Every structure is written in C-alpha cells, then in structure tokens.
Amino acid sequence: xxxxxxxxxxxxxxxxxxxxxxxxxxxxxxxxxxxxxxxxxxxxxxxxxxxxxxxxxxxxxxxxxxxxxxxxxxxxxxxxxxxxxxxxxxxxxxxxxxxxxxxxxxxxxxxxxxxxxxxxxxxxxxxxxxxxxxxxxxxxxxxxxxxxxxxxxxxxxxxxxxxxxxxxxxxxxxxxxxxxxxxxxxxxxxxxxxxxxxxxxxxxxxxxxxxxxxxxxxxxx
Amino acid sequence: xxxxxxxxxxxxxxxxxxxxxxxxxxxxxxxxxxxxxxxxxxxxxxxxxxxxxxxxxxxxxxxxxxxxxxxxxxxxxxxxxxxxxxxxxxxxxxxxxxxxxxxxxxxxxxxxxxxxxxxxxxxxxxxxxxxxxxxxxxxxxxxxxxxxxxxxxxxxxxxxxxxxxxxxxxxxxxxxxxxxxxxxxxxxxxxxxxxxxxxxxxxxxxxxxxxxxxxxxxxxx
DNA sequence: AATTGTGAAATTGTTCACAGCA
DNA sequence: TGCTGTGAACAATTTCACAATT
Lengths: 221, 221
Known about the structure:
2 copies of one chain form a homodimer. Helix content of chain A is 43%, strand content 17%. Chain A has 221 residues and is of the alpha/beta class. Chain A folds into 2 domains: 3-85, Orthogonal Bundle (Arc Repressor Mutant, subunit A); 91-202, Rossmann fold (3-Layer(aba) Sandwich), CATH 3.40.50. A 7-stranded mixed beta sheet of chain A has the order 5-6-4-3-7-8-9, with helices on both faces. In chain A, strand 7, helix 8 (162-174) and strand 8 form a beta-alpha-beta unit. In chain A, helix 1 (15-34) packs antiparallel against helix 4 and helix 2 packs across helix 3. The structure holds a DNA duplex (22 and 22 nucleotides).
C-alpha cells in the first residue's frame, strides 16, 4: 500500500531466465518478419531448443502475456520483451582497445541493429590513434574520462590485453560508468553497483576441447 | 572389474563445473608465473570470485589434488587441469567467414597460446578470397570439405551471417566434424554427437541493458 | 594450526500436471 | 478442445560443517 509496495520483481529473477528472454526475443523477431500472428509456447520453445514449460514459467515472472487456448501475440510479446530487456531504446557505447577484437566490434552490425550505438573507440598506441574503423576515428585513451561524460557513454566494452583491463575499468568506474562488457581474459574486481559481464572465448573453446576428449563416442557408437 | 568398469566420471559433470575449471586454469597459470608453489582453495577462489568450497568440490569430481593442511601444488594442478580440459595438446581449427569477427579471431593471440591453431579461414566472397590475415590466406568456401580432411581440422568456428550458418554447419557435419564454436546469432540444429557452443554477444549486452534498467540503484542508494 | 575432501543440508532452477480460461 | 499460468514435485547445484590429514 505504501509507494514502495510496487512490484519489485527484478532482483530475484535468475540469470538464466534473462538469457532465455534474449533467445525468445530473437525467435520472436524472426516470427514477426514471417507475419505469423501468434505463437504457442511449444513452437517458441522448439526454435531455441527449450521446453514449453520453461517458456511459460520464464514469461510468468514478468506478467501475463498469452491467451489460454491461443498462444502469445508475436509482435506484442516481442515489444514487451524489448521493454523488459531495456532494448526499446538506444544505448551509448564506447570500445576500449582498437586491436583485432575492438575494431571488429565497431563494425559489427548486430550491435547497431539492437540499439547499441558505438560512439567512440579508444587506444593508447599513438600509431592507432587517428585511424578510421567503420566510420569512427580512434581516440586517445587520455580522453577517456572527458569523452565518457561528453558522449553520455552508458556501456563500455573492454577489448584490451589482460594486464591493461583492470586499470582501465577503474578509470571508467571513477568517471561514473555503471556497465562493462569485458573481453579481456581476466577477473575484473569492481564495486557492487557496477554491472559486469565477461565474454571468455577461450573458455568456450576449452569446453569444446573437454567435451571432445571426454565425451566423444568412439567411431562405431 | 570388467574393462568397462573404469572410472566414467565425464558425462555427469556439470557445464558450470567445466567452465570454472577454465577459470582455475587461468588463475593457476598466473600463479605459476609468480613462482608460488602452493595455493589454498581460499586463495584460488578469491582470484576468480568464487567460494573455497566450490573450488574443492569441483576438483574433487576429478580426483585428489591437494594436501590437507597445505593446499594445492600450483604447477602440478595446472598441468592436471590442462589434461582434463584437453588442452595439453594442440587442436586444428578452421574459421568460416572472413568478415570482422572471423579475421579478428585469426589474429587473436590467446587462441594460439592455448594450443588452438587456426589452419584455415574461408569465405564465399571472391573479393575476400586470397586476402591475407595474420599469416593466413582466405580460402574459397568451395574447398571446405576437402580442406577439413586434408588439414585434419577438429574444431570449426562459424563467423558468418545468421542465414548462412546452418547450411555451413551441415556441410561440416557431413564431412565428419565433431565440434563447432558458433558466433552467428542463430540456434544451430545438429546431431547429438556433435559438440556445439554458441557465443552470443548480443545476449551479453542485453543482459547488461536489463540490469541497468531493472537493478540499477538510484543515485543516492 | 591449517586446509583438504566430502556427505548432508540448503538453495536454486526445471519440469510436471492440472485448474482455469478462450 | 487447446493452450496458458502456476503451485507442487523433482532435480541440480551450491554451501555448510566437520572428520581426516599433514
């Protein structure tokens, strides 16, 4: 009854549920393009190798989106998931590191399509500063703090060598940044109120390696 | 007692345990370089933001590696984890797609350091075929099947647009490939005996976006 | 005294199964 | 009849707590 009594779902929702929401969103975007008006939990689940019960349970954490007997309205559900995921808007992004990964990300169309706008790419190497990549000019890392503010950067992508990552992350945090996507193979230590996700590509290859060695069936079975 | 009665741990080991093994491996590599001889579960856990009990439990699935009262021998444990993860050897890798991500991966040093040797990079665009990237010349995708065999490729990395991914994956599987790392934002459908991992960079950004919108604390707390 | 290895307890996440509704 | 929404059952994972060991 007090103002604070409003629904405070977020917080107890699991990481895996949010990740699946991304998958549902992706499948719904495809469905919307085909013009299909409604989709059952069964169909939606099948498109991402999940179970129908999982789909219904995940969605139920956030509200009631479907019609019993019919299914979910494709366009409407997609829009509502966009809202929940916070991608019904644009986000200003900066990339730190103009090496292989950093420059690849700048030209990666998927990001722009999802509303993640890369506004700046930084490097500390004078030979890289000034170079062009996909319409952006590499800025000197010395300008980091001032540019984060002037460009209203909300998310920073770290794509520098492992040893350079923590000091840069610290600088971003001191400048008030609240979200980091880290591609450096290192465990960043940050205050609790800063959101951090780490992409560990070696980990994925090592998982494949483990599976090949330990779980591969012999040629005949 | 029968030959088949040998330890069959692998299979019931969870995905999360294997991923953490990668983290332990990484931390141990750093520790080994500093010359530290032993490490406690507490220290090791702290380096990757995990709990000491988690470390001990994970390791206990694979054997007894530590000494009560002392801790774990750094170099020895690192070597044993390398064995378990299947990275105490090299793997032959091919990259499909010479776009931004594909070419970035070819020059990514972390992979070579871990024993993942990129032997070929393919593209279907005649304008890209023949170009050089980090010591490799882009091959025509028409040569895929023959090169997979002649180069003894064991892992394929897919870095092509979503719509091209499934047909290419099918070609690889028909050629006998058993492991795929997929960067295309699509759910690949493959036979059960093929190992598949998918890197979904948009998902990670969407997770950050979700957290910023739903969990960010107001400025004053 | 310190630290592992591990059953048991607690917690978290998934699936079931069916009431409720179109 | 078909399909959602959901509490309850089940399964998986993590944490606890302590005996065992150096």
